[in-house]
């Protein structure tokens, strides 16, 4: 059994960096060898969220500028968290139709990425992009709109079912919470939230709708439930609703929000289907069920033994996680020290496609998730079409032969004195973080691809330029296309 005092190995250090960022730089991996899990995690978590907001007048520019920032950001965990919250509170510009609102929401997630979860939920309640996306701005007293009330519980805080498979709320809870959010809008000039009392559902106006009470059946509040007008009707109701939701307890009498969010963060950062014991342990270690602070919860996850289960070599029964398309693309660019070109952020090789097109083919266009449920994870990323798109991206990386940082530059990435095919394969797979995962047969196949040595691939060797551009670049492409590189 390990804990925060357990020293990292090369393998576990690589896993920690890869899961909390995009790729793992070999030098950084070496620096963390023998450093304790706790010390390494504290360093990774030690950043002040920036105020960055991706620029652009149209959503394509906003998308590309966010990707550009991910490639160069100093603290990649920040962007890994923004990506998580973007999926968790999924909001699409296809409905919002306002890039400025999407840009502001992106910054909201960044500023709150590792802060207090209750504060984040309250901010999202009144975020103009979300208010447009889930119809809060169209929630009127005459017929309260249930969209936000439903997703607030189903997706953002409680989940439909608890970890025992029992319901967390009833349809009546959705109906009642919708009443609390009626009348909220935002000023179209200042973008500040605006409560319009004349559009709010007051109990005296609609006595037939009953008292403003929720969770009379679920949540361990007793048969009387909990009143969300306890602090007064009107503006105060939505904050009271959030206070009640964060007190909700599941059929095991555990805090429902804490379990729902901890489990989802584990699934994102570690592996799918974590044990309930793992979920409860990180909550207990961080007191997330009382303080709802995200940073201590993340620390508890990253030092726990179960977090490192997916660091094991792939094999039958090994817990692994499939890389998200954004992780695949951004991680590759950071690992190879490459940049995309121009405001269109295109890859300077092969089809010269921009990064948005590459990601669209892989099934993930940022700022346009497919639904309020966000993206499907894991196996959903591995359709035949999506895998072909990854292979095309890897091919285009291998064909990026322009000058400067837009090009794949093996001479700057691996030891140029290597000429032995096996040593070259080891250097490339080490750089890309899959050396320990390769089967013997897979490693030999890559060696056979290079052919008999010595491999003369530097500029001062006869045909060195041709060999480098054909064989060495091809080797990088093959590794990027390998099943090992698709997994965490």
Would you give an account of this structure?
The protein is mainly alpha-helical and 488 residues long. 48% of the residues lie in helices and 2% in strands. It has helices at 10-20, 26-32, 37-45, 59-72, 76-88, 93-96, 99-111, 117-125, 128-133, 147-157, 171-181, 236-245, 256-269, 276-286, 288-291, 294-303, 325-335, 355-362, 384-398, 410-413, 421-431, 440-450, 464-481, and strands at residues 184-186, 193-195, 213-214, 226-227. Strand 1 and strand 2 form a beta hairpin. It is elongated. The model has no long low-confidence stretch (mean pLDDT 96).
How are the SSEs placed, and which strands pair?
Blueprint lengths: L9 H11 L5 H7 L4 H9 L13 H14 L3 H13 L4 H4 L2 H13 L5 H9 L2 H6 L13 H11 L13 H11 L2 E3 L6 E3 L17 E2 L11 E2 L8 H10 L10 H14 L6 H11 L1 H4 L2 H10 L21 H11 L19 H8 L21 H15 L11 H4 L7 H11 L8 H11 L13 H18 L7
Antiparallel strand pairs: 1-2, 3-4
Helix pairs in contact: 1-2, 3-16, 4-17, 8-12, 10-11, 13-14, 14-16, 18-19, 19-23, 21-22
Structure keywords:
488 residues, mainly alpha, two-stranded antiparallel sheet, 48% helix
Percent of residues in beta strands? Answer: under 5%
Principal-axis shape: elongated
The ordered string of helix (H) and strand (E) elements is HHHHHHHHHHHEEEEHHHHHHHHHHHH
- Content-based structural category: mainly alpha
Report the span from N to C terminus. Answer: 22 Å
Rounded radius of gyration (Å): 25 Å
| Mean pLDDT across residues | 96
How many strands, what sense, and barrel or not for the largest sheet?
Answer: 2 strands, antiparallel
Given the structure, what is the number of helices? Answer: 23
Number of strands: 4
Helix content: 40-55%
Poorly predicted runs of 5 or more residues: none
Strand order of the largest sheet: 1-2
């Amino acid at each position: 059994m390990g804990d925060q005092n357990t020293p990292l190995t090369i393998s576990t250090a690589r896993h920690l960096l890869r899961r909390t960022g995009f790729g793992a730089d070999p030098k950084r991996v070496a620096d963390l060898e023998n450093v304790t899990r706790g010390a390494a995690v504290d360093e990774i978590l030690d950043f002040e969220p920036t105020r960055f907001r991706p620029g652009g007048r149209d959503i394509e520019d906003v998308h590309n500028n966010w990707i550009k920032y991910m490639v160069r950001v100093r603290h990649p965990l920040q962007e890994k968290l923004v990506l998580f919250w973007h999926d968790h509170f999924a909001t699409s510009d296809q409905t919002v139709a306002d890039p400025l609102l999407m840009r502001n929401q992106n910054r909201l997630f960044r500023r709150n990425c590792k802060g207090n979860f209750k504060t984040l939920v309250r901010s999202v309640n009144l975020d103009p992009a979300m208010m447009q996306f889930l119809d809060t701005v169209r929630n009127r007293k005459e017929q309260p709109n249930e969209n936000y009330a439903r997703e607030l519980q189903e997706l953002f805080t409680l989940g439909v079912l608890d970890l025992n498979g029992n319901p967390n709320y009833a349809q009546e809870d959705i109906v009642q919470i919708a009443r609390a959010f009626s009348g909220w809008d935002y000023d179209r000039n200042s973008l500040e939230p605006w409560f319009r009392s004349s559009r709010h559902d007051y109990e005296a106006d609609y006595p037939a709708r009953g008292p403003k009470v929720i969770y009379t059946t679920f949540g361990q509040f007793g048969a009387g439930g909990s009143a969300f007008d306890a602090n007064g009707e009107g503006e105060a109701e939505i904050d009271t609703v959030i206070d009640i939701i964060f007190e909700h307890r599941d059929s095991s009498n555990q805090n429902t929000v804490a379990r729902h969010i901890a489990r989802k963060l584990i699934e994102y950062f570690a592996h799918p289907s974590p044990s309930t014991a793992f979920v409860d342990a990180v909550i207990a270690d961080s007191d997330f069920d009382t303080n709802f602070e995200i940073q201590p919860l993340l620390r508890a996850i990253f030092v726990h033994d179960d977090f490192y289960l997916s660091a094991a070599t792939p094999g039958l029964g090994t817990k692994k996680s499939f890389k998200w398309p954004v992780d695949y693309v951004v991680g590759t660019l950071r690992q190879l020290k490459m940049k995309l070109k121009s405001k269109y952020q295109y890859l300077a090789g092969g089809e010269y496609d921009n990064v948005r097109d590459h990601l669209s083919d892989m099934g993930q266009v940022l700022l346009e998730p497919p639904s309020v449920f966000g993206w499907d994870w894991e196996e959903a990323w591995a359709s035949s079409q999506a895998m072909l798109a990854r292979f095309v991206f890897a091919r285009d990386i291998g064909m990026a032969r322009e000058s400067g940082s837009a090009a794949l530059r093996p001479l700057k990435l691996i030891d140029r004195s290597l000429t032995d095919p096996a040593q070259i394969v080891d250097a490339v797979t080490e750089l890309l973080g899959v050396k320990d995962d390769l089967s013997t047969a897979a490693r030999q196949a890559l060696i056979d691809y290079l052919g008999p040595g010595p491999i003369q691939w530097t500029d001062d060797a006869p045909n060195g330029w041709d060999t480098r551009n054909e064989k060495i670049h091809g080797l990088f492409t093959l590794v990027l296309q390998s099943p090992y590189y698709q997994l965490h």
